[in-house]
Design goal:
Elements: E1 8-10, E2 17-18, H1 20-33, H2 41-45, H3 51-60, H4 69-82, E3 89-90, H5 94-103, E4 108-111, H6 116-125, E5 135-136, H7 149-158, E6 166-169, H8 172-181, E7 184-188, E8 206-208, H9 211-218
Parallel strand pairs: 1-4, 1-6, 4-5, 6-7, 7-8
Antiparallel strand pairs: 2-3
Helix pairs in contact: 1-3, 1-4, 3-4, 5-9
Amino acid sequence: MPDTPSTVLFDLDGTLIDTAPDFIRCLNELRVRHGLDPLPGATIRRSVSNGARAMVRVGFGLEPEHPDYLEKHTAFLDLYEQGVTIETRLFEGMDAILRNLEARGIPWGIVTNKPVRFAEPLVAALGLAERCAVVICPDHVTHRKPHPEALHLACQRIGASAGTGIYVGDHERDIEAGRNAGMTTIAVRYGYIEEPHTVDLWQADLIADTVPDLAKLLQ
């Protein structure tokens, strides 16, 4: 763990911000449209980090090869785009972490598998666009995480060394991407994780069970 990291990069959903309430709202609204009862929020929440494909699987039991999949997938994304920040917020305590990094002159950024179509309006609506040094989405690279390309691009744009940088995420692919980029990795167990006990197997350098734990690690 570098004493003063060159940068701290965050995954978005389930790490920096709590997007689950809007995912839950949209998926259940879509289910109701199709005559189905809403699902419990906890059932949906743990799959949020896997994106719209996981939402269609959880909500309708459909995989991409199913003839009805594309219609459900498109409808979910359209609903989500219409209300991307209705209930989404920074995780409680996260703003203090960001302010601490800013006060110490450590640039922070976002590296996410969320497309620009959703990520940039979301970051702007939460007042983060002027604060973060970089936002890297799949649209900006050839390879998605766990490939390290997005992390290398973020460090390049910031002018930071990946070897003294930190990447924080709530999915195994985040930790793998960070390792592949040569960064120190922190896995957060408070995120959208289907089996929280498996975090111990991800080979992260450090694990934060809560946002206060993460704050201590980044001090």
